[in-house]
Amino acid sequence: MNECLQPKTIRDLPPETLIRIFECAQDVWPAGKYLHGRGEVDLGWVRLLHVCRLWRDICTRHQHFWGRKLCSFYNIARFNEFLRRSGNASKDLHLTM
Q1: Per-residue pLDDT tens for 36-55?
Q2: ∠ CA 22-28-32, rounded to 5°
C-alpha cells in the first residue's frame, strides 16, 4: 500500500473502522456496570464519547451502535436515552436476574 494513503493517526481512519473499534470496546468494557466497592456506576465504553467531538459525532450518528448492547443502568433515564439513540435499529437486550 502506498505510504501516502495509509492513515497517520486514529483520526484518519474512516468512520466505519472506528465504529468497529468502538463495538469491540462495547464487548469488553460494558456500560452501566455497578462498582460495588465505589458505590457508583461505570460508564464503560460510553467514556469513548468524552475523548473528542469526532468520536462523539461518529457514535451518535450510528443508531445500530446504541441498540447493539443495551445496558442495564440503574437509572431508567439513561436506559431510555440509549433506546432513543438506537432509533429504528435492532435491539440487543441482555437481562441479568
Answers
A1: 888 788 888 889 999 999 99
A2: 90
